[in-house]
Amino acid sequence: MKSICLYFQVHQPFRLRTYRFFDIGENSLYYDEFQNRSIVRRVAAKCYLPANQLLLDLIKKHKNNFKVSFSISGTVLDQFGMYAPEVIESFRALANTGSVEFLAETYAHSLASLRSQEEFTRQVNLHREKIDELFGMKPTAFRNTELIYSDAISNMVSQMGFDVMLTEGAKHVLGWKSPNYLYQSAVSGKLKVLLRNFQLSDDIAFRFSNKGWSEWPMTAEKFTGWLNALDPNHQVVNLFMDYETIGEHQWADTGIFAFMKDLPGAIMKRTKFSFSTPSELAATLLPLSEIHVPYPISWADAERDLTAWIGNDLQDDAFDSLYTIEQKMKNCTDQQLLNDWNYLQTSDHFYYMCTKWFSDGEVHKYFNPYPSPYEAYINYMNVLSDFMIRVDKACPTDSPVVVLGNTP
Amino acid sequence: MRVLMFGWEFPPHITGGLGTACFGLTKGLAKHNVEVLFVVPKAYGDENEEAIRLINASDITIDIKDEVIRKFWEQITYMEIGSNLIPYVGPEEFAKMISESSEKSDIHTNSILSSKFEFSGKYGTNLMKEVSRYAMIASVVANNNRFDVIHAHDWLTYSAGVAAKMATGKPLVVHMHATEFDRSGEDINTEVFAIEQYGMQQADRVIAVSNLTRNLVIDRYGIDPEKVVTVHNAVEPTDKSAFENIHAGVKEKVVTFLGRITYQKGPEYFVEAARKILARDPNVRFVMAGSGDMMNKMIRMVAKLRMGKRFHFTGFLKGENVDKMFAMSDVYVMPSVSEPFGIAPLEAIRSNVPVVISKQSGVSEILTHALKVDFWDTDALADAVYGLLHYKGMQNMFNRYGMAEVNNLKWENAAFKVLETYLSVVK
What we know:
The complex is a heterodimer. By secondary structure, chain A is of the alpha/beta class. Chain A has helices at residues 33-61, 74-83, 85-96, 117-135, 151-159, 171-174, 198-205, 220-228, 256-270, 278-284, 313-323, 326-330, 335-344, 348-351, 362-367, 373-394, and strands spanning 2-10, 68-72, 100-102, 141-143, 164-168, 182-185, 192-196, 236-242, 246-247, 250-251, 273-275, 290-291.
C-alpha cells in the first residue's frame, strides 16, 4: 500500500506594534491589534474558511478515504478566538469527520527546542491541552516549528510520548536516500520520522502559479502522472505545506481551489496511492532505516537550516536576551505575563531580523512587516526590555540558567 | 574621450561636497582613460592635477570688441545675489565672505567687461556677475580646446556649459548635485531656478546624484525623463587608522549631528529627538557640529529645553576635526529635510559609526546597513538612536556590513556610468 500524507501548517504570529523606547516602563501594549485582526480576518476569508469547506466536502465525497492533517499553532488559535471564532468552528467540523489528524507543536510556534528542554516541554503540553480542549483529540504525532528537527530534539519529542514526528527531507541529510519512506530517529528508536518531499510539495506551494515554470499550468492529472512515475517501492509521499498556500499565497484566481478539489479523486482513481495521516503511517509502516541529524534542519529557504531565525548578531542577541528570563518565568503565575512570554517566543519575531533577504529572499520580504531587520530588532528589543522590567517586578527570584548542549 | 568640464571649485579650495565630488569623479574618469580639462573660475596653483588639466578662467582673455562675445553678453542679464543662492554655505559664512570680498568686488564690478577678469571663485555678492562672466569665458575656452563632450557641475556653471555648446555644437551633460529646492525649500530664488531649468533643457543629458534628485528634476523642472540618469556619488578611500585611539572624554555615549545648521539639514528634528531621548535616558550626550543660519535658534531651543548640560555645539569643523568628531561618536544622525545625496553618513560608517539617516536623502537609496526614518518622525528618530545605543546586537552588523557596503561605493564605478552617459550623446 502506498500513501499520500497531506499535512498543512496553520500559523499566525502576534505581530508587534511599533513600540518606541519611551513606551518602556510606561505601557505594556505590545501587539498590533489592527494588523493582527485584519490579517487573520483576511486570511480566514481567503483561505481558512473556504479551504476548510473544500476539505470537508472532499471528505464527505470520498467517504472518509480522503484524509488530511494539521498543526495549528496556539498563537493562531488564540487569534481565531479573538478575531474569527468561526474558523475554530470549521476546524471542529473537520475534526468531527474522523478523517483529520491534529498534530502537537509548541504553543507559541517557538524555537524553544533549540534552547531548553523544560521550556520546550511546557509549551508542547500547553498546546496538547489546547487541541484536546478545542477538538477533543490527544495528539500522538508531533511537528516542531517550521519542521525543525535534530537528533537531540527527536529525543525530547520521544520522551514526551509521541510516536512520530515530521521534518524536512533535506538533501544534505538524506544524501542518496529518498524521503518517500518511513524512517526512525537514530537516537530514539521509538520515534518514527516522516520526511517532506520538497519537490512535489513545492510544486504546489511555490510553483503552482508561476507562469515561467515549464510545467505551468499544473493539473491534477499532471500531478498524478508524477506520482506514477515514482519508484514503485516507495511507501509514502509527504506533501507538507503552509495551509495559506490555498487561497492566500496562491490566490483563488490561480485555480488552486479547483486543483485541490480535483486532486484527491484523481489520486485515488489514477494511482495506487491512498491517503493516510502521520499516526496511521507510524502504526502501519516499518521504518526503512535510521536518520542521523546532528545539526538542526528545517524547511526554510534553500539552506534548510536555522539561519532564517538565528545566527546573525541581531537574532542571537534578541534570542539570548529573551531566554535570560526563562528561570524567572518558571516562578511566574501572572497569566498576562505568561501569555506575553509565549507570544514573544514566536519564531516569526526572529525571522523578521533575518539579513539574508538583503540578497535573496523575496519570500522573507513578503512576510515581513518591517522595512529592515534593524527596525525589527529595535522594536523587539524595546518590547523585550519592558517585558523584562515587568518580570523583574513580578518574579524577583532567579536561579542559574541551564543551557542545553544542542544550542547552536 | 576628452571632456571639457566646468566646475566652481576644486580641492583643496572647497566649501563643501561639490568640489570633493568633482575631484572624486575626475579621478574615477582617469581610470577609464577619460581626459578631463577642468575649468574653474579661479585656480590657486596648488590644486591636485593628477587626474585633470586645470584651466584657470581668470587667465583667459577675451576680446570684448568681438561681435560674438558682445552679442552673448547682451543676452546675459545678471543680478545681485541673495543669501539663498549660495550652495553649501550658510549666511553666517556668507556674511563673512561679503565683508572679505567687498573691497575687491568694487574694483571688479566695472572691470567685468575688461579683457581679463580676476574671479573670486567664491560665493560672494558678485556671484551672478561672475557666473555670467564665466559663461562668456567658456565659449573662448571651448573654441581654443579640442574635446568630445561638455560636462557642467551645478547651476553656477550651467550657463558656461550652454555657452560652450553654442560655440562648438558639442554635446552637453549637466550634473545636478543640488537643486534650488534642496537649498531653499519652497521659497526658491526664481532666477537660479531659471538658470537650472534652462541649463537642463539645453543639455543632452542630465546626471542626478540620486533618484530623489532625478524625480525632482523631472517633476519640478519638467525635464524629459528620457534624458535624466542617476549616478550615485561615491567616496574616496582614506586611512582613518590615525584616529582609532581617540575616545570621547566623557563617559556617556555621544550622538552626533554634523553638517550645516540650516533648514535643509533638519537640525531642529535632531534637537527634538534629543529631548525625547534625554527624558528617558540622561546618560547620553548630543553634539551639533557645524554652523549655519539656524545655529543661534538651535542654541536658544536647547537652552529653553534646559538640556544644555547634555547638548553641545562645536561650531564649524573641518579636516582632521571632522574625523576626530566621528571617532568620538557612537551614533551619527542626518535628519535632512532634503538631501540630494549626502556624503557625510558614508564618512561616518567608514569611521565605524552607525548612522540614522532620513528617508529624504539620496544616500538612503544606496545604504542598506543604516536606519532610515522620515525626517519629521522624531519618535522614530529617537527610537532608532536609542536602539543603537542600547542594543548591542546591531553594532557588529553595522561595522562589518556597513563598512563593506561603503567600500564598494567607488568613484571608478560612478565614473563608468558617467562615461556611458558621454558615449550615449557623442556622435
